[in-house]
Design goal:
Layout: H1 3-8, E1 19-31, H2 37-41, E2 44-55, H3 71-83, H4 90-102, E3 107-116, E4 126-133
Antiparallel strand pairs: 1-2, 2-3, 3-4
Helix pairs in contact: 3-4
């Protein structure tokens, strides 16, 4: 599967490519992130969504959790990254989250979206979205 094909299928399951879509939608967390002084002092609300394209194994699932990429583990990894402390840019935080997801060789692509809902009064939220691919995947 080439990078262009992976990018085009990163947000859905694909039977031909034998991939599944694992996702975390709208995880609400408090984090100290930002370059302004007040952002360094107090946590602010972030909404994080993660979409993973996961290679299905040749062997069966056997109805066992360790045979799949667990969305619960994805959430716990995000919380652990945030717990490490202040990050200046949400872009950096998104890169850290994507890198963490791609540490599992079954994850072919990671799309991370981070929203700051309380920054601009006239907007529901502002933020960024990145997509990263497994190196050598």
């Amino acid at each position: 599967m080439n990078e262009q094909t992976l990018s085009l299928t990163a947000t859905r399951a694909n039977a031909i490519n034998r991939t599944r879509h694992v996702f975390v939608r709208d995880l609400n967390v408090m984090a100290t992130v930002g370059v302004l002084e007040h952002e360094k002092l107090a946590p602010q609300k972030l909404i994080i969504s993660v979409d993973l394209t996961v290679r299905e194994g040749a062997e069966g699932l056997e109805d066992r959790l360790e045979k799949v990429v667990c969305y619960g583990n994805v959430v716990e990894n995000i919380k652990a990254i945030i717990a490490k402390g202040h990050v200046n840019l949400i872009e950096t935080l998104a890169e850290m989250i994507a890198k963490s997801a791609l540490e599992d060789a079954r994850v072919l692509a990671a799309r991370v979206r981070i929203e700051k809902p309380d920054i601009i009064a006239e907007c529901a939220s502002v933020g960024i979205e990145i997509e990263r691919l497994q190196v050598g995947g």
